């Protein structure tokens, strides 16, 4: 695909001396000849001089001035009045022609010149505007709001259940707090809105959609806004969530109720929340162990009903975790069969965070903390839900209670058998994956997968970069935009804090107090082959007057030759080589900051035997600064502004009783090592699960299974999407039609032969063999074949009357767009056009959609009424 792009001399701003906001210094066009400041000719001459200067460094005779910048057009009439005068008098002068334009008009006239254009296939990261000013800090800035937007997008696009702690410097209401667990709402909300039937009257999902759109501003989710603006984004998102919550809960109520001849508007089921609100979807403060619906007293015969919704197009099994107050509990699945469950004690570190942040968020101290996390494995059909019931037991607990063992050298021989730990080590993991820890050093040392025969040396550590404070010869500070470290410092435990281990049939956990302000839990699930690492970072101490940027490192003995791969907007993976670019001679002044990249989905590295992948729960910065090592930045707290427009330091705080401390961030990243060539399938499939976790709804009712539908799928029985196809959008539009987007998740072996050599170098993101240097296409032999989706089985409960294919943004028909597609003439030798494999047109009788490798197809679907 060809995209016309370019850079302007003044970035996205007008030329100097052509700003027309009230009180700007630029001279206005004074065309009243009776006034002493009459200056028409001076203004015209300066306009023409600047235009010709830009034209001398621009191909073709057409140039663009982007008239405006940040914080401008607060008084738009002053701009347009001056531009009207300039256009009039400049055109009257005749040396250049000026007109109001658009990017589309500009592109069309550039194309019409038949100019030959240079081609660039790489991206521009990392970007720097001067020697020590790399714009790589904002990849991680405000990690809470980054997670917030991710979660609400997923609730709007697909629900995400990972955890975050939002910065609430203001006294936010409960309604605002709901959003802290639900920025992943949008897709699940829109799917359920479709099943129930959209109402153009409120409540609907539009308010959340609008808030998410605003949050996509380049100074919003990027974290480069002022604090009060970040608070405003969060508040708007939370208001949107509250309305979407009503839509989702009423939709679930409709779907679970099996009463005959009853409209969805009169359903009896209520998914209740502790704030006396009608509905609940996943406790908004679950990440800090606070979930009133699950903390009910079950000893009097009550049962807690949990409806678990899966917004993915595949049947899915995943672990559910909720806090409970007693160990006397049992879990039943949708068929009434008791299933295996596990209880994990709530540790003091979690209780401390719960007490502080519930008080910060709600303005009151929480009730007594629950004693346990209840953990069980849930199985949910595609685009549907399953119901699980948690009940109290009168006898001994049915759930296995995990007992903590504080592991020191002296406990090895008594607490663990020789098979579990030898030579001062312990092992966690009940399934194929085993992690080995050295007890004396209290650190991870080995990763073992029995199924794949992977056995690798590995270490996990934390460090922080001290933010530059403007005190040296170059006064560039680290700030919201800029990452400029002034030294790297490893974190070390204060005192001999032992490892704490919990074992059970579902998950093993190992807890580590890294420092007083870094706590980590590593989980290995019996049914999974990756490690789930939950980190809690904060409050970052700054009493020493030094800002800190906290990073974590995964270190191996892999021979990676300066090479690693980072995702491009969660879709492609792009090859990165430290301190090197293929198309220009790169000079790196900051060896760390100059090699940081944005990580939205994950990154990986490989050698001639294995590949190590790390996936993330929010956008962060990351790199491979040392061969064999992957690094992620998790949190930043800085004391100086970096002079890029924010005007304040990146120093997020949370206040309780008028006492403030630095923001604490809680989150997850996921680690896996595979034989070479086998990691792509996990990155693709599990990446979808990270974006689209289960959505949970709670209620208390007796006799649930006899009066309600306990299982549902929006698809035809036994049908699911192919493993290599994801449903990106399912949204009912105002006219009753449905917007559908389907995406192919991987590449085929045949794809490379169809594209040009230069395009191969760019697109061969998953397939470079470290031993041969050859691009070996084919992410996974099972996921890189042409895929088909049967639309009528996808919409099993409706009859399709018409399917219209649209462009990606759904604002024009695909056929019309392709007729208007511009083909550019490029420099160099004639190039073979990249003819990627694409799915064919849809047969209106069969209604089958074909997708080729990496293809996204968008449709408007009409149904019979």
Question: Which keywords apply here?
Answer:
865 residues, 9-stranded antiparallel beta sheet, 10-stranded antiparallel beta sheet, Beta-galactosidase, Chain A, domain 5, Substrate Binding Domain Of Dnak, Chain:A, Domain 2, alpha+beta, 15 helices, 7-stranded beta/alpha barrel
Secondary structure topology:
Blueprint: H1 40-55, H2 76-93, H3 103-112, E1 116-117, E2 128-130, E3 133-134, H4 143-156, H5 174-178, H6 186-196, H7 206-215, H8 227-256, E4 303-310, E5 316-324, E6 329-332, E7 338-339, E8 341-345, H9 348-362, E9 372-380, E10 384-392, E11 400-401, E12 405-407, H10 412-415, E13 425-428, E14 433-438, E15 443-449, E16 454-467, E17 485-490, E18 499-502, E19 507-515, E20 518-525, E21 531-537, E22 548-556, E23 563-568, E24 572-577, E25 597-599, E26 602-606, E27 610-616, E28 620-623, E29 629-637, E30 653-656, E31 659-662, E32 665-675, H11 680-691, E33 695-700, H12 704-707, E34 711-713, E35 725-732, E36 738-744, H13 757-763, E37 787-790, H14 791-794, E38 800-806, H15 814-819, E39 825-826, E40 848-851, E41 856-863
Parallel strand pairs: 1-39, 8-11
Antiparallel strand pairs: 2-3, 4-10, 4-33, 5-9, 6-7, 6-10, 8-9, 10-34, 12-18, 13-14, 14-15, 15-16, 16-17, 16-22, 18-19, 19-20, 20-21, 21-32, 22-29, 23-24, 23-26, 25-28, 26-27, 27-32, 28-29, 30-31, 35-36, 36-41, 37-40, 38-41
Helix pairs in contact: 1-2, 4-6, 4-7, 4-8, 6-8, 7-8
GO biological process, one term: mannose metabolic process
Keywords: Disulfide bond, Glycosidase, Hydrolase, Metal-binding, Zinc
Protein name: Alpha-mannosidase
